[in-house]
UniProtKB/TrEMBL annotation:
Organism this protein belongs to: Potamilus streckersoni
GO MF term set: serine-type endopeptidase activity
Gene3D superfamilies attached to this UniProt entry: Peptidase S8/S53 domain (3.40.50.200)
Annotated family: Belongs to the peptidase S8 family.
Name of the protein this chain belongs to: Peptidase S8/S53 domain-containing protein
Protease among keywords: yes
Any Pfam family the entry gives: Peptidase_S8
Any single Gene Ontology cellular-component annotation: Golgi membrane
Superkingdom of origin: Eukaryota
PROSITE patterns in UniProt: SUBTILASE (PS51892), SUBTILASE_HIS (PS00137)
Length: 235
């Protein structure tokens, strides 16, 4: 088996290829993507979807398909679990894991009810919940509502709890994720963004709750490539 090493010029390396070579591919792990939905017919994702567990909290059904031009959830899903060896787009970091699409974000505001349903959804099967969303940037202090705060405690992983991965926020130096009650929750692992030069991305928020950083796109640096770029290139 040949693994083509991509982005070998980026340092420090996330050592994804080394993890694969050590036998880790996400097999047996279920990741929910709480976002704008997932294009469930995407040929780079469709084999890695948990069809029985999707949820759409905007249309209130089990089909999380996003409307035209709401592609963030599909991009996030691709980074996590895009299929390998299909000559299509990218390979997800955990290409052996399975995805649950939870469509929470759209053109209207979320509520404590919809957020709590997203956080608690499929808690008995979900291992990791990916959340690249949060309170409005530049807003000041903002905490989850009472239902959402309680939903974080529901369980997952046989009572050990779902691992909620949270974005630090996009407010840059004009905001501070200390004031973000989702990012600073004891139930979330908050991640901030750096560019390919190892510097904070222009929108990165910095605060003690940010436990780690990962690579992300940045203006004038490089953007990330994910499962929707073929569409994007087409215009
Ligand atoms: C979906 O359910 C939420 C409450 O959970 C409600 O506020 C919303 O209006 C419903 N949307 C539709 C399209 O029925
Ligand atoms: C992931 O690893 C497991 C365990 O080694 C293996 O059985 C499975 O085929 C791998 N998944 C893929 C998609 O290669």
């Amino acid at each position: 088996m040949i693994i083509k090493i991509q982005n070998g010029d980026i340092s420090p390396s996330m050592k994804v290829v080394e993890a694969w070579q050590s036998g880790y591919n996400g097999s047996g792990i279920i990741v929910s993507v709480v976002d704008q939905g997932i294009e469930t017919d995407h040929s780079d994702l469709d084999a890695n979807l948990r069809w029985d567990c999707h949820l759409d909290l905007i249309d209130n059904d089990s089909n999380p398909y996003p409307p035209f031009n709401f592609r963030h959830g599909t991009q996030v899903a691709g980074f996590i679990a895009a299929e390998r060896d299909n000559n299509n787009c990218i390979v997800g970091v955990a290409y052996g894991s399975k995805l649950i699409g939870i469509r929470l974000l759209g053109s209207s505001y979320t509520t404590d009810i919809t957020e709590s349903l997203a956080i608690a959804h499929a808690y008995n099967v979900t291992d990791i919940s990916s959340n690249s969303w949060g309170p409005p940037d530049f807003y000041g202090y903002f905490a989850p509502g009472p239902l959402t705060a309680e939903a974080f405690e529901f369980g997952g992983r046989g009572g050990k709890g779902i691992i909620y991965i949270w974005a630090a926020g996009n407010g840059g130096t004009s905001d501070n994720c200390n004031a973000d009650g989702y990012a600073n929750s004891i139930y979330t692992v908050t991640i901030s963004s750096i560019n390919n030069k190892g510097q904070p991305a222009w929108y990165s928020e910095v605060c003690p709750p940010a436990l780690a950083v990962t690579y992300s796109g940045d203006t004038n640096q490089r953007y990330m490539v994910s499962s929707v770029n073929i569409y994007k290139l087409k215009g």
